[in-house]
Design a protein that fits this description.
This protein starts with 13 loop residues before the first helix and ends with a helix. The protein has helices spanning about 15-25, 30-75, 80-85, 95-105, 190-195, 200-225, 230-245, 265-270, 290-295, 340-375, 380-405, 410-425, 440-465, 525-535, 560-575, and strands at about 110-115, 120-125, 145-150, 155-165, 175-185, 250-255, 260-265, 305-310, 315-325, 325-335, 425-430, 475-485, 490-495, 540-545, 550-555. The chain is α+β, with helices and mostly antiparallel strands. The radius of gyration is 54 Å and the shape is rod-shaped. Strand 3 (about 145-150) and strand 4 (about 155-165) form a beta hairpin. About 25% of the residues are buried. Helix 11 (about 380-405) crosses helix 12. It has a 5-stranded antiparallel β-sheet with strand order 2-1-5-4-3. A 5-stranded antiparallel β-sheet has the order 7-6-10-9-8, sandwiched between helices. A 5-stranded mixed β-sheet has the order 11-12-13-15-14, covered by helices on one side. The protein has 3 domains: about 15-195, PAS domain (Beta-Lactamase); about 250-335, Beta-Lactamase; about 340-575, Heat Shock Protein 90, CATH 3.30.565.
């Protein structure tokens, strides 16, 4: 039975292919997933290329064969034998013979002749006879030509319909009927073979090359991921993030070119690094001085814990080198904030100074008692009296010299301790006549005491080194001057030591710099802390270069409110009266 136009033949659904590929990829290893995905991409490309080739071959067939079939139909429509047989009703023999010979000669599918009523009179396809010819356009019934695609008996056909007109006298131009020639569309396989004789070879070769490349790529990626599967890599990344952001210590990793490859939030906060620090070098981040030496390893490749003063923080840093298969991968440095611990150590230093004072005084008193006991044993009673008077006068002179000039109890006690320690080393600690310090607030007093203690200790150590190889401690002096105005305290410490050469003046306040070495990385922090305290309080600390004696000047901003000044004046007056 004849029917209307044929629907398009659907291609393989790309959505279904993608679904199948994703389902397979989820169940395999990383290499397997990559292989499946690559193969899927290649197959999709090949399917698209094949579909385009088939579509192109179909368009070519429709265009070329359509013209041929139309020309053949027009040739038959103009054949006198066809006209004469269609003019005679019910004539079949001549048309049937002509149709069969035409099919054999032209290699078409079928030839049909319909009368003016569009009923098929003769056809090489018996199923068409007696049926009404399909009319894709109503104009064909009125004598118009048409060519195109129809679905006849469930098969897609290329069809040409040409009208037959009479040329007989008295009937010129009369519509006698229609000639219909059909040619079946070739199958997709036949069109693929006809598109190119080497198409299947090209497709097969491309598929093999794609499979080989996908397999090699999967093996390479497998090696680069150290044999780990995607879920293992994801778990490792999650554990890494949890570890980095869950610990209280800072972590910063550098590659061999000192480029930041990893830094957690704690390290970024402690080192004041920007959010985009990863990928930048230490030079790009403007890291300088002691911190640069510790992070880059230029201070000591085998160092353990190192102390760094960084923008008001005391950091303890530990650097480790990382290697794999003998190749250096960089360094990993951990950071711990020990600012609070440094404050406690500073307070502990005050108590340690008091302990040293008591120890020095106990040692001094023991020597004095031994002297008095010896004088009594030899009967020099007058000398005993003179000796006791001299000791009392010297002690009262020291107490009066400090207490009359230094009104802050903590700083005064610190100077008393340092004076006893200096006396034990046979060093003369002097308090200048210009010294004048009132009572300070507790925090101000602690900071001033830290600066005074560090500078005096540094001076005592410097004086003690002079002539140390001569059989005993060298004699020398240390002079302290403390002055105060309404907004600051100035501390000047001079000594008779070897001085500070001009070439190292810029380094003495750098953390880690010291003329002595104890190997534990803790030397050189006293002057660095002094500079940090001075700068935090809006002041500074300077040293005058000299080859004979050092001269340090430190200035700190303090709070001199009226109640504090009044308390200081009252305390100093009581000290003078006593």
């Amino acid at each position: 039975m004849l029917s209307g136009p044929a629907p398009n033949v659907p291609l393989l659904s790309a959505v279904k292919v993608e679904y199948i590929v994703v389902t397979l990829a989820r169940r395999g290893t990383l290499a397997g997933q990559l292989l499946v995905l690559q193969v899927a991409v290649i197959l999709v490309v090949l399917v698209l290329v094949g579909a385009l080739s088939l579509a192109q071959s179909e368009a070519t067939f429709t265009r070329v064969e359509g013209r041929r079939v139309t020309a053949l139909a027009e040739q038959l429509g103009g054949n006198p034998l066809v006209r004469s047989n269609l003019e005679i009703p019910e004539t079949r023999t001549g048309l049937a013979t002509l149709a069969q010979s035409f099919v054999a000669q032209s290699s078409v599918g079928s030839v049909s002749f319909a009368d003016a009523d569009e009923d098929v009179r003769v056809s090489t396809n018996p199923s068409y006879e007696g049926e009404r010819i399909p009319l894709p356009r109503e104009a064909v019934a009125d004598g118009a030509s048409w060519s195109g695609t129809l679905s006849l008996d469930g098969q897609r056909q290329l069809v040409a319909q040409v009208p037959v007109f009479s040329v007989s006298t008295g009937r010129v131009g009369e519509h006698l009927g229609t000639v219909m020639i059909t040619e079946p569309f070739p199958s997709a396989w036949a069109r693929a073979r006809g598109a190119s004789s080497y198409l299947l070879t090209y497709v097969g070769g491309a598929l093999l090359i794609g499979l080989l490349g996908s397999w090699l790529l999967a093996r390479r990626i497998k090696r680069q991921t150290l044999g780990m599967e995607p879920r293992e890599i994801a778990g490792l990344a999650e554990h890494r993030e949890a570890l980095l952001h869950g610990i209280a210590e800072g972590v910063i990793a550098l590659d061999p070119q000192n480029r930041v490859t990893l830094v957690n939030d704690v390290a970024r906060h402690l080192l004041d690094l920007p959010e985009h620090a990863e990928g930048l070098t230490l030079t790009d981040l403007r890291v300088r001085g002691r911190l640069l030496d510790v992070l880059s390893g230029s201070d000591d490749d085998d160092a353990g814990d190192r102390v760094v003063v960084r923008r008001g923080r005391v950091l303890v840093m530990n650097r480790m080198h990382v290697e794999r298969d003998g190749q250096p991968l960089g360094t990993v440095t951990t950071l711990r904030d020990r600012t609070a611990l440094a404050d406690l150590e500073r307070q502990l230093g005050t108590f340690r100074s008091s302990t040293q004072l008591l120890r020095a005084q106990a040692h001094e008193f023991a020597n004095q008692l031994h002297t008095i006991s010896g004088l009594i044993q030899i009967g020099e009673y007058d000398e005993v009296v003179h000796y006791v008077d001299a000791v009392s006068e010297r002690r009262n002179s020291l107490d009066l010299s400090i207490n009359s000039r230094v009104g802050d109890p903590a700083v005064a006690a610190l100077l008393m301790a340092k004076a006893s320690l200096a006396a034990e080393r046979r060093i003369d600690l002097r308090i200048t006549d210009t010294t004048s310090l009132q009572r300070l607030q507790p925090q101000d007093s602690a900071d001033v005491g830290t600066v005074v203690g560090n500078l005096v200790d540094n001076a005592l150590d410097a004086v003690s080194t002079v002539g140390a190889g001569g059989g005993g401690p060298a004699a020398g002096w240390v002079e302290v001057a403390i002055t105060q105005d309404r907004s600051s305290v100035e501390i000047v410490v001079s000594d008779s030591g070897p001085g500070v050469p001009e070439e190292i003046v810029g380094e003495v306040f750098e953390q880690g710099f010291s003329t002595k070495s104890d190997g534990d990385g803790t030397r050189g922090i006293g002057l660095a802390l002094t500079r940090m305290l001075c700068e935090q309080r809006g002041g500074e600390v300077l040293v005058s270069p000299s080859d004979s004696g050092a001269h340090f000047t430190a200035r700190l901003g303090i709070d001199t409110s009226e109640d504090v000044l009044a308390a200081g004046s009252s305390t100093r007056s009581e000290g003078l009266r006593s």
